[in-house]
Amino acid sequence: MIPYLVRRTAILIGSLFLAAVALFVLLRLLPGDPANALLPVGATPEQIEAARRELGTDASLPSQFLSWLGGIARFDLGKSLISTLPVGPEITARLPVTVPLTLAAFVLAVLIAVPVGVLAATRAEKWYGPVINAIAQLGIAVPAFWLGLLLITVFALNLRVLPAGGFPPDGWADPGTAVQSLILPVVTIALVMSASLIRYVRAATLDVLSADYLRTARALGATAREAMWRHGLRNAAVPVIAVLAMELATTFLGAVVVESVFALPGLGGLLVRGISQHDYPVIQGVMLVSTATVLAVGFLGDVTQRLADPRLRIRSAS
Amino acid sequence: MRKILAVTAALTLAGVLAACGNSDSDSAATSDPAAATIQISSVYEPQNLDNTAGGGQGVTEALSGNVYEGLFRLADSGAVEPLLAKDQKVSDDGLTYTFTLQPNVKFHSGKTLTSADVKASVERVTAANSKSARKSSFAVIKSIATPDDATVVFTLSSRSISFVYNLSYVSIVNAEAKDLTTTADGTGPYKLGEWKRGSTLSLTRFDGYWGAKAKNAGVVFHYYTDATALNNALLTNAVDVVTSEQSPDALAQFAGNSAYKVNDGKSTTKLLLAFNDKVAPFNNVQVRQAVSQAIDDKKLLSSVWGDHGTLIGSMVPPTDPWYEDLTSVNAYNVDSAKALLTQAGFPNGFTFTLDTPNYDPHPTAATFIKSELAKVGITVNINTITADEWYTKVYQKHDFAATLQEHVNDRDVVWYGNPDFYWGYSNKQVTQEIDAAEQAKTTDEQTSLLKQANKTIAQEAASDWLYLYPQIVVASSKLSGYPVNGLNAQFFAYGITKS
Predict the structure, then answer these.
(1) Which of residues 239-278 of A touch B (CB under 8 A)?
(2) What residue of A is the nearest CA neighbor of B391?
(3) What is the rounded CA–CA span in Å between residue B499 and residue B476?
């Protein structure tokens, strides 16, 4: 396990470096000049040139890249070209919205998907097996923003039990309001996410149900329920864990749309604004933090998968 | 089944939470309006809090007139009124402006305003690294003197009748203040409360204000990126007023509801079909006139804005002092357009590319123009570009035949006097009139010269001014005293009361 962890960590760091390079290069390929976004109509060419010098965008690309990498090593993501404010604090200020939103949505989605998915598989012959399946299929087709708007219309505009959007200015110092403002966004993401998860869980459970070892367990005297609990779920969990890690990552990135619909001051808003203004340090900062999170989640997913499945450990040892 | 249970559980929890904590800070409004906090929603969040460092329109909206004041104020009516300048004297040659400051004006930090602060504030705008839109207007300043704490003297290199107007854009800041990108130190009726980036900016009443104090205890600007979210906030009473509706789609839900008031104010934002006046075929006046006459602006306006907005026949909006109704010049007339095209040597029309910014309302307008011009035989190729490409290709390189663009500023007809501006309109007489207007001795003289220039550009169809945007403020009907015209994107909040 230790050599595996070392190797896997090296891969993690290597991927992060490659991601940083790709991010930097791809952004510079986009047409446009941040100096333009900064200056008002009527700016003189001298003003534009001065702005470029000030922003450092007149320097050569390799030297810009190296200075960015150097900054990262010192945990300094640089300053926004547009607002002139440091990017790091800007990102950390938004994590108290995006992180709880993502995690709560993820947990809720798993809480919905695992029981429902198992039920859909083990009760495939009952009437609600296919119904769950059909609803899940429909759920996959529903865009998150649309579901968000629907929930807003029902619970905020008509029933008036929850806010339509926004986050309290005092943030988590006002926990009641903070939780309230996250309920609809969390439910939105969780419902959309659970739709696809249900199908994975169902498929994984169905695979397991037809497996020989389950039949053997039954032959040895276990009830269907005992066999499922002791042997089935653990085996079904292996592919689902891999999917879960990916889902958590996409939730984190997909929160962008939902944050905008619910006017939440999260990372998504920062990213969208950065992109529209060619604010390289902001885009790079947000993307790097997101990429690092996704890679870290993938790392944890791989390790968890190994812990759940001894066969993977043996194969890597040989 | 469990899915439904889980949802039910979540919603029950929601209901419980809502029941125990759902009181908007102001829904339990006290009877004293001076104790109320006004909740304002807007799409213009500042980039940072400093207008000379690229803070943008959001700074003007939230801070101008509220936290910061100028020597003069551009009132909602378009008039320029003295503010921190108590008294002004202009020398006979128009080159020396002497201002006496209001006495006993305190900054929010407690410091007393002196002439040194005024000098430093203007120098921030004219500094080498300034990103202020007004920088070029102050190129005429030769020197600034501060003979005593209450007097500031500007010496100009040439007459500039707009000087006082331009000064209304300069926020007077504490010369000793540090880091004005995240903090503020002005003399206005509010001091900065807290700015939660991506979310809210609050202002609280400054009790040491030198003039009439704000009529409310404070205001909170709530920032949205999504228009639906912005309108929902008003519908759920999370906010009291929306400073500027971005599309007419949402207005129906407010228009028929007595709990809200929809205000149609006057904006200064014009939608232009700008020709490259230097390049064929649009270097031909008749071609420009023909295109202008072939487009039914009224139909376009109503398709974009419904019943809102107004038609203009030229660059000058109604709140500029030299406004004149020129909608009859080059008005919609397809027959006349065809005749003009024939005279210009294009009886069968021609083809041109229309560079179209990819954000509303430009794509809609482009499609409309394409179908209108097809009726007179002109083929339009729509080339969709980003705002940034527009800036580089059209604005900087002048590499275009025609383009669509919104021009937001007031008093910006003067760009037609600059032959090097992106549209390349060059008419010696107009340039002279516009230069002379700036050198005018009286505002009457300035007004009459600019009226003349404006008439000429309208007749020559220097551009086609499609329409003037509406400025729509939607507010709770409990609210009064808010500005409706939004000139220069300002939103003076000190007069707002909530009953």
Answers:
(1) 260-263, 265-266, 269-270, 272-273, 278
(2) A36
(3) 10
CATH code for position B386? 3.10.105.10
- Interchain pair A116, B3: CB under 8 A: yes
pLDDT given for residue B374 in this prediction = 95
Beta bridge partners of A316: none
Assess whether B426 and B485 both reside in one domain.
no
Strands (E), B198-259: 200-205, 218-223, 241-242
Q: Is B96 helix (H, G, I), strand (E, B) or coil?
A: strand
pLDDT tens per residue, range A36-67: 766 666 667 777 777 777 777 778 888 888 88
What chain B residue is nearest to A279 in terms of C-alpha separation?
Answer: B47
Phi-psi region for residue A92, left (φ > 0), alpha (ψ -120 to 50) or beta? alpha
Give the C-alpha distances (Å, rounded to integers) separating A198 from A134, B380, B498.
Answer: 11, 51, 50
Burial (CB < 10 A; 0-12, 13-18, 19+), residue B115, is buried
- Strand segments, DSSP code E, in B290-441 are 351-357, 379-385, 402-407
Domain membership flag for residue B178: no
Regions of chain A with pLDDT less than 50: 318
Q: Which residues pair with B152 in a beta bridge?
A: B99
Whether the CB of A116 is below 8 Å from some CB of chain B: the reply is yes
3-state secondary structure of A130: helix
Asked whether the predicted pLDDT for residue B30 surpasses 60, the reply is: no
pLDDT at A41: 61
Q: Which of B401, B429, B430 is nearest to B314 (CA)?
A: B430
Please enumerate in sequence order all residues whose Cβ is within 8 A of that of B60, keeping only pairs 6 or more positions apart, or say none: B51, B488, B489, B490
Q: Quick one: DSSP state of residue B187?
A: -
Distance (Å, rounded) from C-alpha A302 to C-alpha A298? 6
- 3-class DSSP assignment, residue A248: helix
Q: Which domain holds residue B37?
A: 13-67+188-267+471-498
B425 and B279, same domain (yes or no):
yes
- The per-residue pLDDT for A40 is 64
Q: Report in angstroms the alpha-carbon separations of B430 from B145, B285, B322, B450, B460.
A: 35, 15, 15, 9, 11
d(C-alpha B210, C-alpha B229), whole Å:
38
